[in-house]
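Pilot study result, target chain (326 residues):
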Amino acid sequence: ALGTDQNYSNATVDAIAKVVSTSLMAGTMALVPHVDTDARLVVFVGSNPVVSHGQSTGFPNPIERLRHWRRQGEVVVVDPRRTETARQADRHLAPRPGTDHVVLGHLVREVVRRRGLDAASVPAPAIGFEALVETVEPLTAERAATITGLEPADLAGLVDAVEQAGRLAVVTGTGTSMSVEGNLVEWMAWSLMILTDSFDRPGGMWFNPGYLTRLDERPRLPPVPPGLPSAPTLPTQVNASAEWPASLIPDEIEAGRLRALVVVGANLVTALPQTERLTAAHDRLDALVVLDLFANETAAHASHVFACLDQLERPDLVPLDLYVPA
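Predicted structure:
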């Protein structure tokens, strides 16, 4: 409404890999996959829903969800750390940090080889199948084991689990989306699910039409919004999701292009890199307006602070799960 190009969100801090990969592979950012209730194999990669279950792929009552999937199949966690979710899983693989894409790439390679897939037999229409196969071909069990530090037997067991289940659900989290190889992880996860016919199929993942958006009733999905020009302070930065990375905020303030900042429910001081530079930049703003439930480190630098109500304190806001479309 203000006509500014200074638009930032937490998406570029913790989940931009999901936005970029979905946009490139599906031509829309509207497709957010959710695990099917009847899934027989659920693989969590860098995701810990027992602790963090309010993300895009939400998990109300996560412990019971995990127990449910274990009763009918298998839950696998791929994470360098033995997380709370890993303790609830049937199988935990702990690769070296930053090598999750190799684990998934190896799975893609083996699925193609074991199922004898080619461009004509891929379950869903796909472009670039040959390039994908060429990319993952070097990721043999021995090569993948060397890179990830996993035992070849553990990798083989995971491949067997995929083949036994037929379809699977792959859930990635901030452990991968905030990493250097985040785009590759998302790309490989989607490729694996496409090749195993796991999207919008029983035992895989489904795309939630949403209470409000009703994507299933639209003649076409919302396209990717047109990208804005690169930020002058970093001309090589590609714009994504009609915003720039939040890490550019200090650069834009120092360049004099960003003069006032309104922060809604975020703590930039603890969320962004280069803390000292960021706090110094905050003090140069004409106005730093913070709207939040709590007094935090960013509010300490604010010119204006508004203490907001939580949604559970608002009688005029109906919980989403009670919303009935007209």
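One observation from the pilot: Residues 320-326 have pLDDT under 50 and may be disordered. A full batch analysis is planned for the follow-on phase.
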